[in-house]
Amino acid sequence: xxxxxxxNTTTWLSPHTxxxxxxxIGLEVHCQLATRSKLFxxxxxxxxxxxxxxxxxxxxxxxxxxxxLNGEALRLAVRAGLALGCSIAARTHFDRKHYFYCDLPKGYxxxxxxxxxxxxxxxxxxxxxxxxxxxxxLEEDAGKAIHDRGPWTLVxxxxxxxxxxxxxxxADLSAPEEAVEYLTALKEMLxxxxxxxxxxxxxxxxxxxxxxxxxxxxxxxxKVEIKNLNSFRFVxxxxxxxxxxxxxxxxxxxxxxxLVQETRLxxxxxxxxxxxxxxxxxxxxxxxxxxxxxxxxxxASFVERERSMLGEPPAERRARWQQQWHLAAKDAEALTQxxxxxxxxxxxxxxxxxxxxxxxxxxxxxxxxxxxxLSLLLPRQVASLVTMVAAGEVSxxxxxxxxxxxxxxxxxxxxxxQQQGLRMVLDTRQIEAWCRxxxxxxxxxxxxxxxxxxxxxxxxLGPALKLAAGKANAAVVRETLLRLIAEx
Amino acid sequence: xxxxxxxxxxxxxxxxxxxxxxxGARSVVxxxxxxxxxxxRLQPRWNAFLALDCERALARAHTLxxxxxxxxxxxxxxxxxxxxAVEGLESxxxxxxxxxxxxxxxxxxxxxxxxxxxxxxxxTNMDEYAMGSSxxxxxxxxxxxxxxxxxxxxGSSSGSAAAVAGHLVPLALGSDTxxxxxxxxxxxxxxxxxxxxxRISRYGLVAYASSLDCVAPLAxxxxxLDLALDIxxxxxxxxxxxxxxxxxxxxPFKDLQGLVLGVPHEWxxxxxxxxxxxxxxxxxxxxxxxxxxxxxxxxPLTRHAVSCYYLLATVEAASNLARFDGLRYGVRAAAxxxxxxxxxxxxxxxxxxxxxxxxxxxGTYALSAGHAEAxxxxxxxxxTLVCREFDEAWGACDALLGPTTPFPAIxxxxxxxxxxxLYACDALTTPVSLAGLPAAALRTPLVEHEGxxxxxxxxxxxxxxxxxxxLRIAEVxxxxxxxxxxxxxxxEVQA
Amino acid sequence: xxxxxxVRIPDLRNAAHLxxxxxxxxxxxxxxxxxxRILEHFAALQAVPVAGxxxxxxxxxxxxxxxxxxxxxxxxxxxxxxxxxxGLAPQTQADDEFYIVPKAIGVAP
Lengths: 488, 495, 109
Hints:
A: 12-stranded mixed β-sheet, 19 strands, 38% helix, C: mainly alpha, flat
């Protein structure tokens, strides 16, 4: 049974019954903070470290060990809240969330339940819809359990205690693509605020989806939580799958297919969600305030300092670039892939580079030359090169080779241009002289052009440029050739 | 200078012993060797220790003997409750669950004493995971009271109290959560001290009830307690609740002139027998004789302290003991390893004793969905009221004076089948614990009890942070009573 | 208010299960009976009026000694050597890289 998306809406029509359905989606995103050490101990946060080599008495929950809060984690968390427009609480505290599992050494997770450090805020989608945030809170990550290697379950505690923020939206999303747009925007904002690299391959960004369906105007349906989604593509696919599954179950009226509130896992290979083995009832986490960590005060000065570290939101930056500098939307997107790149680009423009040309040069030449180009160049060097090209002083082809030299040896672009004599000739008389020479013995082409076939002149471009040793602008040469032919 | 006879070291307090070691009048190695020998020989009698490491202690003694730096506890043998981490020593918390666990680090409080030259000779017996008031909840048999071996030394710091009362060591560390050092101090005729919560780092103290647990010393002199407090107190980067607030400096008091001591009539009324009441009245008289003004006041919430304490403590205990699952340390149940869940359950069910299981069930229930509000949250609100009651009391006096326990040491087995009757031992210590206040447990006169002589104790309670004041007052009272020189018959027991 | 203070044995048995205590039938009956009696005794606490009173979970900060004001610096410190860490575990495997535990069915709650 395939539901049909109704054009320009977030509703689906069931061809079977003629019933229209809506999706109700909420997202819980866990994001690993970019700190050097764990949330409650000094162990290093290091993806890919050998198993159980970043573990201490605290994060392995040895008897008698105590948690001590990482100040940078708190600062980054507050910054994340500000980036997403949230209100930061004046006072906050940690709570213990109890459950037993082999990757949770203390038998409880230190998280925040009753007084998260921030509430409110949200992300506005392109459609104008505001996806509201309910809360963001700080918590520690669990370790890793490996079930498919031999008769035992293997446990690695390197990740236990890594700092996370969990952001929870209201059930404001109505379609798979809205979820993807939200996640993309969230990821971008967190990266740009310096909160996290959000590298999903390293598990730095994880998403759980809550999804239910309902008839328009009706009460909320039974909600299902889907876990184990490690790409935005799978988020959309899982929502799509649930939509079909839940509507089919409801419309069938079959008691065996009755929907239950449960957790399901996304099966990447089969492209379906599967129910987890049922547990008896919902988990009772028995939250209680964490007695080992004092209540935190977050004074205005603390919050304002983080606000000053935020930088311009990437969406606003792109809008400004398009408006002020007439950048193409595509280029603006590409240049805001990371905060580092965006800052670099702006620095180059401030150093005098014409924005559009600079954007193009950065994207097409600098970033493609080698992976670490940005760390080998200074913005003002690129600015100088782009300015020369824009003024016609250096050909595009020459600029490419100058770039290579500067990357390899660090020599300033102007110096390279000088050393290699790459400066273009702008003297019109000189260009004319070359063109006249190129025209010698080319009566046939001259005749063709005079007869109206202007394109015939292109055959003379090569020879003319060769005479100019590449130091004449091709367009100017073509113009000059045509003019001379016309005048002859 | 005449060499002191080997056994007289038994009668010295830690301060004096350290002094003699530093001056060279006494050999550290001799002391430690004698101490270890005595502890080993008397171990079957009192069962004070769970782990004795004489080799380690002697090696350390040799190092100290020739050391250039000589700390304030130079060469003093100490015993440490088995819920304190000491790197390389077994700290089983008297539980089958944790047999064989040797901490990979040392508790801050212990490390600070060691840095001043103290020598840890072993870890002492206790009620399992510090849950008990008699020492009878140990998985390795109860400790016997050196004053009367058919009696309990008190709990949960039973072994540490017996070690000091039996003159095995002059100074021992215990922990006091609801009275676990003050109560054994009373039953064993010792000086004991519970600091302000947050005064001494809890890093390395196996948590029972985090918001109530205090590392607490036991000794035979108040000046030893003051020294231990001075060494151990202070901020610790590994404990976020440990305060940087400094202890007030003060010289010992000559008397109690100008001080007002409040005696809550509910505390006085808790004394169940004539001799105990007489012993406490002697203490009040001593205070008057020393120049203090005595005022009677009322702390009505005293009668709810035990309930309030046990509800809060068991909730935290159930939480703190969740880490004992047999996966990363401790004992894993051999059979039933078919699945993770079954393994965890088996290990815990087999590893924990009855009292621990009772408290875990109680604490889990009191925090569970549908019940947390009525039990846990309610108890936490009563706790606020208990704190307020003390706050008001400070408006009328500088310190409170009361008995430590309603009755002297019970006979082993007397109450072991009745948890509630054991909880009743804590009626006078729990209110102080709930408020996080400091309390000095002092020795009051011996009493005739069931055909023998038994020690009794009183406690001086002061406002938050006034730890030293409590010790100073207690010291004057003991001098006035003449109990500072109290020695158990065990002092004469030759190993 | 009265309902939530009456202690039901099934709730206590559920609490034992939540705490991963797998009590044999006899033990469960005895233990839960004891706990029920204890709670009935503690029920007297309910008589204390607490309207408008904030709960107190810790004796530091708002009352008692102030905690240390500074937060921990974000610097990576040395971890425990793996051999020392895994050496504390009740069961280990030859290659000694991981903790080994009985197979988990399903995933974490």
